[in-house]
């Protein structure tokens, strides 16, 4: 190979590595980890969708089966959705970024009772404070989610 070709390949490789670093740097802190729910029975992956809002889905269950079959969303108030698998279930919907560590105006779905609540979240290092509420934030409950291994 000629030295000019080697330099071009080296330059292209360095440029691609730099682009990969920039793409990772643009990812929000909330997206860089999986999150255990408070009971550590599920891992949730949070991602930013094309609408610019944050969503989260269940990607791991400590006990993925019920009666020898994959768990389904049996408590969903919509009878047509009760056979949807819990694995992959969307539990966080439509969060807007609020400052450096806050996320607001979203909804959280609790598959253990089939209810959906208004929700806001605050990222505190390795802990995500998830506050579900009805009406006013003061009338709610906060759970602490922790970073999970990938």
In a few lines, what is going on in this structure?
The protein is of the alpha+beta class and 150 residues long. The chain contains one helix and ten strands. It has an eight-stranded antiparallel beta barrel. A two-stranded antiparallel ribbon has the order 4-5.
Per-chain topology:
Elements: H1 3-25, E1 34-36, E2 42-48, E3 54-61, E4 65-66, E5 69-70, E6 90-98, E7 102-110, E8 115-124, E9 127-133, E10 140-148
Antiparallel strand pairs: 1-2, 1-10, 2-3, 3-6, 4-5, 6-7, 7-8, 8-9, 9-10
CATH class of the largest domain: Mainly Beta
User: Into which percent range does the helicity of residues fall?
Assistant: 10-25%
Residues in β-strands, percent: 35-45%
Q: Outline the low-pLDDT stretches.
A: 18-24
Q: Nearest-angstrom radius of gyration?
A: 20 Å
SSE sequence, one letter per element: HEEEEEEEEEE
Average per-residue pLDDT, rounded, comes to 88
- What is the second-level CATH architecture of the largest domain? Beta Barrel
**Main beta sheet:** 8 strands, antiparallel, barrel
Enumerate the strands of the largest sheet in spatial order, edge to edge or round the barrel.
Answer: 1-2-3-6-7-8-9-10
End-to-end CA span: 41 Å
Q: What is the CATH fold-level name of the largest domain? A: Lipocalin
Mass-distribution shape: globular
Number of strands: 10
- Structural class comes to alpha+beta
Q: DSSP helix count?
A: 1
Query: How many separate domains?
Result: 2
């Amino acid at each position: 190979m000629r030295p000019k070709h080697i330099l071009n390949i080296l330059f292209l490789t360095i440029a691609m590595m730099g682009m990969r670093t920039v793409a990772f740097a643009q990812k929000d802190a909330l997206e860089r980890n999986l999150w255990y729910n408070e009971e550590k029975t599920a891992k949730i992956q949070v991602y930013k969708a094309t609408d610019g809002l944050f969503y989260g889905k269940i990607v791991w269950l400590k006990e993925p089966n019920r009666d020898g079959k994959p768990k389904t969303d049996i408590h969903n108030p919509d009878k047509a959705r009760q056979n949807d698998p819990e694995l992959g279930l969307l539990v966080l919907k439509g969060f807007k970024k609020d400052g450096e560590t806050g996320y607001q105006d979203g909804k959280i779905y609790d598959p253990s009772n089939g209810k959906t609540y208004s929700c806001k979240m605050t990222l505190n290092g390795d802990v995500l404070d998830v506050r579900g509420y009805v009406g006013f934030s003061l009338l709610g409950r906060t759970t602490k989610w922790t970073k999970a291994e990938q």
